[in-house]
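Task: encode each sequence below as structure tokens.

Item 1
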Amino acid sequence: MSKLKKRFVAGATCPKCRAKDSIVLFKENNVETVECIECDYREQQTEQKVEPKVAGNVIGVFKP
């Protein structure tokens, strides 16, 4: 079983609990996911939603 590689998003604030530097970004079943480690906030975005918005070396674009 492979381990999910989660990355913290520096300076990000959770839209639900407003905790700063608590958002992690990871891919789960080819779906980019952001999750707050302080509360139960979670948002997923498929590749089709991400691709048109991406420019350059951006991992993903989320608008909480």
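Item 2
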Amino acid sequence: MEIRKLGTEGLKVSAIGLGCMGLSVAYADVPDEAQGLRLIGRAVELGVTMFDTAEVYGNNELLVGKALRTVRERVVIATKFGFKLTGGRPLGVDSRPDHIREVCDASLKRLGVETIDLFYQHRVDPSVPIEDVAGAVGDLVRQGKVRYFGLSEAGAETIRRAHKVHPVSALQSEYSLWTRDVEHKVLPTCRELGVGLVAYSPLGRGFLAGAATALAENDRRKFMPRWQGEALAKNLSLAEALTNLASAKGCTPAQLTLAWLLHRGGDIVPIPGTTKIHRLEENLAAAAIRLSPDELTAIEDAMPIAAVQGDRTDAAGRAMLDT
């Protein structure tokens, strides 16, 4: 698989990574450990080198560390800090430097590694200056506990301020055909500074892969604005147009969506998550799809961002975003 560079400090990863959250904290049912280990192992076999986890994803760091132990030198493990956890559940943000150091040490232990490759601030903490956050992670880099610093869902000004203190190698934010907020200010800022963009939920939380028609009763996505009522009906019509384009291209809608994102720039790395090996294989095959300028235009015409109905997250989630 193609290797892409994130940032200016030397971080290199596969063009498509694996978001591992769903292996421990899913929208509905969580797979067992054996299934998670098999899926991560298959990802390694297929050339994935970037694996994304976080302290807030339940036992995910333990699973990821166990799955990658024998191939540690071949992979990049990204994890995150920045939440205040009570009983394992997030109750607000906490990016105090002392807390960052505590989380780092705990994550190293859970992962079973000596160094975290990419350490993200999971969400911006408005009560802690971003300069203090960057400084704390910079100290961890100098101590050899962390290799690269990242931010998640940070706004353009926050990225600039952090980058002045310690180089930001990657920003992880939601980015897909139906969530293109980063294109206005954030992506141009990243490119000006040389910061890579890691796109989470690149399949629109599964919507662009057809998940909306097969949600379990306990699936949390049913409570998200874009998956409800009139918004859902409108968005399904957009997805149908995308499906028709994919059929004409001889690929699946998920593959077409990921290929579009990969064509947005060599500094973008999507990290789709899945719990099924056949979906993993389908997603990774998107890296080989080539799209012409006319095809790219047709894809964007099929799903104009102004036509997408409903917020991408609920009110609580939107309150956590740094704009």
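Check on item 2: DSSP finds eleven helices and twelve strands in the chain. The chain has one domain: 3-207+257-289.
End of task.
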